[in-house]
Amino acid sequence: MIHIMPTDNSKCRIGVISIDKMSNELLAELENWDWYCRKLRRMREMRKQEWLATRVLLKKLIGEEKEIIYTNSGKPYFRDKQFYIGISHTRGYAAVILNEEKPVSIDIEYISSRIEKIQDRFMNKMEKNNLSQKNPLVHMLLHWSAKETLCKFFGGGKVEFKTQFHINPFEPVIGECTNFTAYETLTKNCQLFTIKYSITKNYVLCFLS
């Protein structure tokens, strides 16, 4: 199933696909097999499903297939530069964001208590002190997802989530797309960002659009 998210920007498109088909079924929904088959040979079934689901979702978003190229750091782009693109996968889902005018980034995370075990690796003292009392697990996941989104925006590489990305206090809102702010100390600019997010029963989604 594909969910196309409404946005407040006509230049931006966002979609989420549930990965509930085998790779051969997903491949059958695509036409340019020569773009895919050689790369698929090196992948296991689960990775094939994620990879192909992303291409099926992309086709739904723009009405055609486009070959996705990757930089050495793994950042996706299109050769013709018609859109900026961001991609993310989690258990059972893939997400894609596109923008015609400016760089974008997205991260999707399946809701799981495993995040609690690694919270000290990515949350600073202020963030932990401001965790929601009502929804601490979801709030924790949003911190992780937002920092993943920022990391992808900056092109990946060596980043210290705990000390270089900072989430300002907010209370998570379930059931609607809203936002919170974050800032980075990775660069000298110390940029402030508005992170948009959505919480569903199964996953959280953060993006820069």
Protein described:
This protein is an alpha+beta fold and 209 residues long. The protein is built from seven helices and eleven strands. The chain folds into two domains: 2-106, Ribosomal Protein L22, Chain A (Alpha-Beta Complex), CATH 3.90.470; 110-204, no CATH class. The chain has helices spanning 23-27, 33-40, 45-62, 119-122, 125-129, 136-153, 161-164, and strands at residues 2-5, 12-18, 68-70, 76-78, 84-90, 93-99, 105-110, 165-167, 178-184, 192-199, 203-208. β5 and β6 form a beta hairpin. The model has no long low-confidence stretch (mean pLDDT 96). This is 4'-phosphopantetheinyl transferase domain-containing protein. GO terms for molecular function: holo-[acyl-carrier-protein] synthase activity; magnesium ion binding. Pfam families: ACPS. Keywords: Transferase.
The rounded Rg comes to 17 Å
> What fraction of the residues are assigned to beta strands by DSSP?
25-35%
Main β-sheet, in a few words?
Answer: 5 strands, antiparallel
Q: What's the structural domain tally? A: 2
Principal-axis shape equals globular
Instruction: Note poorly predicted spans.
Output: none
CATH topology of the largest domain: Ribosomal Protein L22, Chain A
- The CATH top-level class label of the largest domain: Alpha Beta
Supply the CATH architecture of the largest domain: Alpha-Beta Complex
Global mean pLDDT:
96
Strand order of the largest sheet: 7-11-10-9-8
Q: Please count the beta strands (DSSP E, at least 2 residues each).
A: 11
**Helix content range:** 25-40%
The span between the termini is 23 Å
Name the CATH superfamily assignment of the largest domain.
4'-phosphopantetheinyl transferase domain
Helix vs. strand class: alpha+beta
Continuous helix count:
7
Query: What pattern of helices and strands is seen along the backbone?
Result: EEHHHEEEEEHHHHEEEE
